[in-house]
C-alpha cells in the first residue's frame, strides 16, 4: 500500500514536500520523494492488490503518542464501576499491573484513533507511593494482550499531595513528604536485597511482589515519577541517583523553575496536563511555558494528556499550545511522536516514519497542532482504522 504526494514528516529530521510512504504488511517498507518512487512506477502498478491513496496537500506523520494517560483503566463516565486506576488500601503496590485492568472497550480509544493517536503509555494513578506497572500499547484492538508493544514499560511512583492526602487523612503513612521518600527508599532497598539474594541463589522461593522490581533495578524500565512541585522533582532525581535507576519526570509542573537541575540529571520529562484548573496547591505555578523552557535547557520532553484528566483526543492541540508559549515547532511535533517514543522505550518500533518500523501512520489536512485541522486517515499496524469520510 502507498500514501503518495503527501508532505511526509518523518520525525528523523527529513521532510519530503512531495513524498510517499510504502507499507508492506504491518511494517513501513520505504519512505522518500515521489521522484524516487517514479523510477519504479511501472513495477508498482503491476503489483497485485497494491492500494494507492493520493493524499496530495496533506501532512503524513508517524502516529501520535500519548506518553502518560489512564485510558481504559479510568473510564470517563462509569464512576466506581469503570475506575480501576488506584488501589487506595495499600500505599506500596509494585506487584500490580495495568495490563490486568485496562478495558479496550473504553470509548476513549476511538477518540484517540480519530485524533491520529496510535499508541499510548497507560497505567495506574498517583494515589500510592508505588502504584504498579505501566504498559505501552497500541490504541486499536479488542484484547489488550494483542495491543501491547512493551509490558512492563515503567514502574509508577508518586510524590507530593496525592499520597499524603489519600493516606494521611486515614491516619496512615504517608502523611508527609518525608514519609513518601522514606517508604520508597525502604522498598527499593528491600528490592535490592532481594535481587542480591536471588543472584546468590539464597532464596527459598520467589517473592512475586519483589520480582516486579527486577526490570527497574536492571535499568530495563524506568521509575515513572508523578512530580509537580520543584522539591518533589528534585527528590525523585535524588532517589533515582541513589539507587542508580532510570527515571521519567511526569507532569513536572514546576520544571521551568529547576530546568538546569533537570538537564544536569539527564532524565527526560513528560509535561502536562496543562489545560486544567489549578485544583491543588502543588500546581499553582502551572504554565504552558514549561516545555519550552525545558527544551531550551536541553531536556528531552514529551507532552501528555493524563486522560481522562484532560481528554486524549486533544493531545495535538496541547502540543500546539506549548508551541504558542515557547516550545519550538519541531519540538512540539517531536513531543508527541519520536521524543514520546524514546522516553517510553518504544522508539525501535514507533515514533518516526522509517523502513522497518511499525506502519503506524497519521494523515492530517495540515499541521495537527492547529485547531481546525482534520485527521484524514489513521493507520495502525498497516491497517487503516480511521478514515474521515
Structural features, described:
The protein is α/β, with parallel strands linked by helices and 389 residues long. It has 13 helices and 16 strands. The chain has helices spanning 34-38, 41-46, 108-114, 161-168, 177-199, 208-211, 214-217, 230-243, 259-265, 290-297, 315-324, 329-335, 338-343; strands at 2-9, 15-24, 27-33, 52-54, 59-62, 64-69, 117-122, 130-138, 148-158, 223-227, 247-251, 269-271, 301-303, 361-364, 375-380, 383-387. The strands form two sheets. Strands 1, 2, 3, 4, 5, 14, 15 and 16 form an eight-stranded mixed β-sheet that branches. An eight-stranded mixed β-sheet has the order 6-7-8-9-10-11-12-13. Helix 8 (230-243) links the parallel strand 10 and strand 11. Helix 11 (315-324) runs antiparallel to helix 12. The longest helix has 23 residues, at 177-199.
Note the gap between the termini: 19 Å
Q: In terms of structural class, how would the helical and strand content be classed?
A: alpha/beta
Poorly predicted tracts of residues: none
How does the overall form come out from the CA principal axes?
globular
- Estimate what percentage of residues fall within beta strands: 15-25%
What is the N-to-C order of secondary-structure elements (H for helix, E for strand)?
EEEHHEEEHEEEHHHHEHEHEHEHHHEEE
Count all strands and give the number.
Answer: 16
Amino acid at each position: 500500500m502507498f500514501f503518495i504526494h503527501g508532505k511526509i514528516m518523518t520525525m528523523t529530521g527529513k521532510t519530503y514536500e512531495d513524498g510517499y510512504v510504502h507499507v508492506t504488511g504491518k511494517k513501513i517498507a520505504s519512505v522518500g520523494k515521489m521522484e524516487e518512487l517514479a523510477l519504479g512506477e511501472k513495477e508498482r502498478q503491476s503489483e497485485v492488490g497494491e492500494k494507492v491513496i493520493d493524499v496530495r496537500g496533506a501532512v503524513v506523520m508517524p502516529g501520535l503518542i500519548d506518553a502518560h494517560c489512564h485510558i481504559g483503566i479510568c473510564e470517563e463516565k462509569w464512576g466506581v464501576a469503570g475506575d480501576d486506576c488506584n488501589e487506595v488500601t495499600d500505599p506500596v503496590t509494585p506487584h500490580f499491573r495495568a495490563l490486568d485492568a485496562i478495558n479496550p472497550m473504553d470509548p476513549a480509544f476511538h477518540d484517540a484513533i480519530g485524533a491520529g493517536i496510535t499508541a499510548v503509555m497507560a497505567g495506574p494513578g498517583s494515589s500510592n507511593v508505588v502504584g504498579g506497572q505501566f504498559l505501552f500499547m497500541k490504541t486499536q484492538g479488542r484484547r489488550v494482550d494483542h495491543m501491547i508493544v512493551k509490558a512492563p514499560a515503567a514502574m509508577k511512583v508518586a510524590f507530593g499531595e496525592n499520597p499524603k492526602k489519600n493516606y494521611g487523612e486515614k491516619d496512615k503513612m504517608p502523611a508527609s513528604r518525608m514519609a513518601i521518600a522514606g517508604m520508597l527508599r525502604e522498598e527499593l532497598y528491600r528490592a535490592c536485597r532481594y535481587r542480591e539474594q536471588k543472584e546468590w541463589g539464597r532464596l527459598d522461593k520467589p517473592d512475586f511482589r519483589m520480582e516486579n522490581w527486577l526490570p527497574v533495578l536492571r535499568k530495563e524500565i524506568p521509575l515513572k515519577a508523578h512530580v509537580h512541585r520543584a522539591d518533589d522533582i528534585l527528590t525523585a532525581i535524588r532517589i533515582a541517583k541513589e539507587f542508580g535507576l532510570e527515571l521519567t519526570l511526569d507532569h513536572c509542573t514546576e520544571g521551568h523553575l529547576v530546568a538546569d537541575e533537570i538537564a544536569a540529571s539527564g532524565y527526560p520529562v513528560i509535561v502536562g496536563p496543562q489545560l486544567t484548573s489549578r485544583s491543588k496547591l502543588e500546581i499553582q505555578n502551572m504554565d504552558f511555558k514549561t516545555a519550552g523552557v525545558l527544551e531550551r535547557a536541553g531536556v528531552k520532553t514529551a507532552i501528555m494528556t493524563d486522560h481522562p484528566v484532560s481528554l486524549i483526543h486533544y493531545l495535538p492541540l496541547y502540543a500546539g499550545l506549548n508551541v504558542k508559549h515557547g516550545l519550538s515547532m519541531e519540538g512540539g511535533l517531536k513531543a508527541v511522536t519520536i521524543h514520546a517514543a524514546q522516553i517510553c522505550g518504544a522508539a525501535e518500533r514507533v515514533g518516526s516514519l522509517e523502513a522497518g518500523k511499525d506502519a503506524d501512520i497519521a494523515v492530517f489536512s495540515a499541521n495537527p497542532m492547529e485547531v481546525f485541522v482534520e485527521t484524514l486517515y489513521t493507520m495502525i499496524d498497516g491497517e487503516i482504522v480511521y478514515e474521515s469520510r
